[in-house]
Amino acid sequence: MTNINAITFKQLRAILAIKEHGSITLAANALNLTIPAVSIQLKMLEENIGAELVYRAKEGKSGNDKTGLTLQGEQVLAAGLQIQATLEYCDKSINAINAGKSGFLSLGVVSTGKYFAPKIIALAKKALPDITIELSIRNRQGIIQGLQDQSLDLVIMGRPPRFPKVNSYPLALHPHIMIAPPDHPLVNKKNITPELLLKETFIMREIGSGTRILAERFLDRVGDGNTYEKIEFNTNETIKQAVIAGLGLAIISAHTVSDALEANKIITIDMVGLPIMRKWFLVSLADAQENIIAQNVQKFLEESKESYLPNVFSPS
Predict the structure, then answer these.
(1) Would you tell me how many other CB atoms lie within 10 Å of the CB of residue 81?
(2) Digit-coded pLDDT (tens) for 240-295
(3) Does the structural domain 4-97 have CATH classification 3.30.390.50?
(4) With b meaning 16 or more CB within 10 Å and e meaning fewer, what string describes 38-68?
(5) Cis (ω within 30 of 0) for the bond into 164?
(6) Helix H segments across 167-270?
(7) Which residue among 43, 109, 172, 191 is buried most deeply as judged by most CB within 10 Å?
């Protein structure tokens, strides 16, 4: 009868060493143990297995013990090697987790950044292959809620919130521009007056969007609080297509419409105060538990920002 629960690592190390070195004597030397100590471990292992695990034979004039494994011994050896490999993998995994090279992280990106966010994941798979990054695209309110309830470890957003308390690190410039279809009468017009501008219809993001907040602040400042016509859509892509179709003008992130600008499907309106230069920030909850995985992902995001952020114009 076998007694598997009584088998110890010391017993398995003994048979592994015997197999590797060919004798109990050499195994004892390798393990820095006495020969009787190794023999005792082997005997206990055989008792627990309920079978002879090694055979011994005299070899040559020297009379040295030559030890080999029985069929039962080979089975125990295979199990021992598997256990050893599993423990070594466990050790490497734990060291990787401790070093922040392996694990899971939730990354939130405001909806304005959904155009470059997938590239972050593609780059991270190459640079940090053992870290799983879950991407969550949300509007500004959703991002702030994710920080507050700690469902997001790191976020990329515009203006950091006042609450909850956060740590923020500037990543790059984030220009916002006013766009129009190429045949719009304000295109290439100089010295656009507030009265002329506010006669236009403006296409806005939904309430709670950071882009909408920025657009409304600009128009309220330029128009001195006068009203203007609005159309609301809840995605930047829909706004871009609405401008192309001639439904109105929009103030929008240059990063979200770089393709349409390059294709001359839309044109920027030139007037004082534009472009509105903001920044992308990398933000984390200030009171969150220290997380070395988040620190390593943050370092990656900071160092690789030129690889995933669109190349748009900077202020002159």
Answers:
(1) 13
(2) 999 999 999 999 999 999 889 999 999 999 999 999 999 999 999 998 887 889 99
(3) no
(4) beebbebbbebbeeebbeeeeeeeeeebebe
(5) yes
(6) 194-197, 210-222, 236-244, 258-262
(7) 109
